[in-house]
Design brief:
Layout: H1 2-19, E1 60-66, H2 72-85, E2 89-95, H3 101-110, E3 117-121, H4 124-131, H5 150-153, E4 166-171, E5 173-178, H6 179-184, H7 193-205, E6 209-211, H8 218-234, H9 236-244, H10 253-265, H11 278-286, E7 290-296, H12 300-306, E8 312-315, E9 326-328, E10 330-337, H13 344-354, H14 357-366, H15 383-394, E11 397-399, H16 417-429, H17 435-447, H18 451-454
Parallel strand pairs: 1-2, 1-3, 6-7, 9-11
Antiparallel strand pairs: 3-10, 4-10, 5-7, 5-8
Length: about 450
């Protein structure tokens, strides 16, 4: 199942490459072959409308847990639309601070205080909760196989294909940039990493902080910086699969080069970047104090609200000279039902509603930068969201974040791929390790438990 997901993503990469660059899409990814594939409207498959379930006879309030604290207003509109169709069921959106979400949710589930519905992370993190009996199976949920491709379902399905969450969100990554600052310094969007570093030096020489990113919130520098840079260094999905299969070691020249790009950025980060949080970085960009910020498409609504004193847009981090561009387009979130919920029937009614075109349209346009995963792709009206989608057509290929598929879950006492990469990225920025030493550490950590890394080809 999961292997097929990535075969499909390879097909998506080939299709997108064949389409050529420059076209600005107006619809969210249709996920006909993979979540990142953009089919023309006339060719997009029509989603099968999920059969309507009868509303609950008695009034029920469901809670929906999430890590998206910034999206309260948008989800209020989404749940209101659901309630208009099902007047006896209300859904209360109850988010948790993102870094605390996994631990908080687990504690709630273990103590019997978990929400009726909750966002489920893709691959190992969500699968673990299902295997431990906290998430209800969706094998009998009407429409789950009709409205989503196998590729979209796979991150929230067992090896036999049993689904346990409704796929709702894919996200992209990019470099937000201040167009006014670029124009004032005679800069245009760079096409290679070397050009970007030259531009960063020009900005620094002019007294402008080139990049807003910091490391106080460690996940940021790893998820939206390092994992945006890696695909173009290693050759996209085919390169990543070579590491996962043991055909390449995690300290080969391409991985060292990815850590080198992190080191390249160090002189251009804010003064005191070690104490700069993710929120601080966004404020630096919002206030025009930094020219660029590497971030996810999910920040589009926040920047549209707060960065109002200058023109800005987004480009994808360019590849090193001589390398092809590969985009990190990540299959990110689904919604599952708490198996212990006292209102499981009502929860299933909500999950079935999430499969339909009404939800897809609300998500794609109430929350620009979040891309629905259903087959029925809505028309996107936000220009920045469409710019992000354009990256997929302009790149040679797309892929998920590097460590997500097989490297997130490590045996007790071992270091998982996410933690190792995070620690080593920060060590490079602190000057504690060279790029080679960081890659060697990553290889050693993974070789401690991941079988292909133990016998990888040197």
């Amino acid at each position: 199942m999961r292997t097929k997901l990535f075969v499909l993503l390879v097909l998506a990469s080939i299709i997108l490459s064949a389409c050529g660059g420059g076209a600005t899409p107006t619809t969210a990814p249709a996920a006909t072959e993979a979540p990142a594939t953009q089919a023309p409207a006339t060719q997009a498959p029509v989603a099968t409308e999920a059969p309507t379930q009868a509303p609950a006879a008695e009034k029920v309030e469901l809670t929906l847990g999430s890590w998206r604290v910034d999206d309260v207003d948008a989800w209020a509109a989404i749940t209101k639309a659901f309630n208009e169709e099902y007047p006896n069921i209300t859904v209360k959106f109850d988010p948790t601070n993102p870094p605390d979400y996994n631990a908080t949710l687990r504690t709630q589930l273990e103590t019997g205080t978990g929400p009726d519905l909750f966002f489920v992370r893709s691959f190992a993190t969500g699968r673990e909760l299902f295997d431990q009996g906290y998430i209800a199976s969706l094998k009998d949920l009407p429409g789950i196989t009709d409205n989503f491709t196998e590729a979209s379902r796979a991150p929230w399905a067992t090896d036999s294909g049993e689904p346990y969450a409704v796929p709702i969100i894919a996200v992209s990554h990019g470099v937000y940039y201040n167009e006014d600052i670029f124009a004032a310094n005679g800069l245009s969007v760079p096409t290679t990493w070397e050009e970007l570093m030259t531009d960063a030096q020009k900005l620094k020489d002019a007294g402008v902080t080139p990049f807003a990113n910091g490391t106080k919130d460690a996940w940021d520098i790893n998820e939206v910086v390092m994992m945006q840079l890696i695909p173009s260094n290693i050759g996209g999905i085919e390169g990543r699969m070579a590491y996962l299969n043991g055909d390449r070691c995690f300290n080969d020249a391409d991985m060292v080069a990815a850590f080198q790009r992190i080191q390249d950025m160090k002189p251009f980060l804010p003064n005191g970047f070690e104490a700069t949080s993710y929120y601080d970085a966004q404020q630096l960009f919002d206030q025009g104090q930094a020219a660029m910020m590497l971030d996810g498409s999910w920040s589009t609504p926040a920047f549209e609200k707060d960065a109002t004193d200058f023109k800005w847009s987004v480009f994808y981090a360019p590849p090193p000279q001589g390398k092809d561009s590969y985009v990190t387009f990540h299959i990110d979130a689904a919604v599952g039902a708490n198996k212990a919920s006292k209102h499981l029937d009502a929860a299933m009614t909500f999950l079935q509603w999430l499969e339909g075109p009404k939800f897809a349209d609300l998500l794609g346009n109430q929350l620009p930068g979040f891309f629905p995963l259903g087959k029925d792709a809505p028309k996107l009206t936000d220009p920045i969201a469409n710019t992000f989608m354009g990256f997929n057509q302009q790149a040679k290929g797309v892929d998920i974040r590097f460590v997500w598929e097989k490297l997130l879950a490590a045996p007790s006492g071992s270091v998982d791929g996410y933690t190792s990469m995070n620690n080593n990225v920060i060590a490079v920025l602190k000057g504690e390790k060279t790029p080679q030493e960081a890659a060697d550490s990553l290889q050693a950590d993974l070789a401690g438990w991941y079988e292909p890394a133990k016998t990888c080809k040197k």
